[in-house]
Fold:
Amino acid sequence: MNITVIGAGYVGLISAAGFAETGHRVICVDDDLRKIEVLNAGGMPFYEPGLEGLVQRNRAAKRLEFISRIEDAVAQCPVIFICVGTPPLENGEADLSSVELVARRISQCARGYHLVIEKSTVPVQTGRRLQKHFSIYRNNPQFHFDVASNPEFLREGSGVEDFFHPDRIVVGVDSEKAAALLEEIYRPVLEQNFVCPVHQGCEKRSRVPFVVTDINSAELIKHASNSFLAMKISFINMVADLCEAVGANAAQVAEAVGMDKRIGSSFLRPGIGFGGSCFPKDIQAFVRVGQGAGCDFALLQGVERINQRRIDQFVDKLKNELWVVRGKRIGVWGLAFKPRTDDVRSSPALAIIRRLLTEGALVRAYDPQAMEKAKAEIPEIEYCADAYEAARGVEAILALTEWEEFLQLDLLRVRQVMTRPLILDGRNMFSRDTVTAMGFEYLDIGSGAHVQKLLLGAR
Ligand code: UDX
Structure:
């Protein structure tokens, strides 16, 4: 099928490459000429494991191309996926101006039948607005359309895997024609009938659930899913605070709580909070949607509040250890909001560094992938060639992103270059026993070890 994907960000580029890999002819459009140039020159606008190969292979096979004019794509493709950004406005509502702009361009040039699918994360009733928009602004009365919602659930860092092995595919439609077209588009993924570009010798997997509902419900499924995952994280962080206060072990609490199949163990890792381009903005947007509809969304406001407080709590923990932070050298391992990505949007690591700079600390940082993007945000700190360099002459190491690479480090060598062997683990990535056995002072999130020590000491 001829498909156009408008927007070459994470969702757009991964979807475009995925659709091409499963046999469709895909035209990916972005109005950022620089990005299109980079892609047509064989480069990538961001780091995502496995995506570069997928893009190159499908460009070479002429199943995937990158252009900047929507009109040229719409003329060739009956199916249009809208994957543009919906960043937050000042008041937290989702900014839909890019979605509307795309809709306007489609209205002006479309002829014949088109299925227009919103894949960007949008508030409920956006699909209804798109339908109304096309009815009002279509230039050509021969432009017949269906609007559908097809929310994306891919995670950065494993986006390619999530495209090919999703938990479910959700579509919101108003017509059987739209549902049938979307089922056809996703058939290879639904039937898990493709050569897996992620796993060598990938086992045949069971059919992926195809959830067909109305447009409003599909839009809500996305916001509700992300908000629930973020709620799990804030919940375990709330419990971790209590564990620190009373002398319990949050990691063990989370493990046992997660063993309950009704709860599940994923997204129960305590830490410095959730970041990224999705959870923070989707929670804000969902709260606005809920309040706008006269519903009590205080629960999610609590999730946001707990998450925002993680930064101060972590910096206070450091100040409690270092007494005065001003003029002290602090080493930071990890800048990305999570491992396997170079994305620093709403990264808790950057928020902590900003706090440290206001306290007058001198920061040396290292990240395997995200330093260029971090430099654009915080140019005034020292970016180091590796983790050892970031530890040189520092009073403390802050472990802020759980890159696998940090677990392979020679910690004895790290200890030798540090001024004080103190590690504050914001992602509970290290083993307390291993690190303390090497002579480090070690503080993690949620284990009231120091309270236990105090309690034990008291006896
Ligand atoms: C998320 C959703 O997972 C995905 O389905 C959706 O499509 C987009 O938003 P992503 O933002 O890539 O994906 O990151 P995710 O892996 O969900 O992590 C989000 C944040 O939560 C990260 O900062 C991560 O460090 C943090 N996190 C995650 C925790 O603090 N604890 C956990 O247990 C899990």
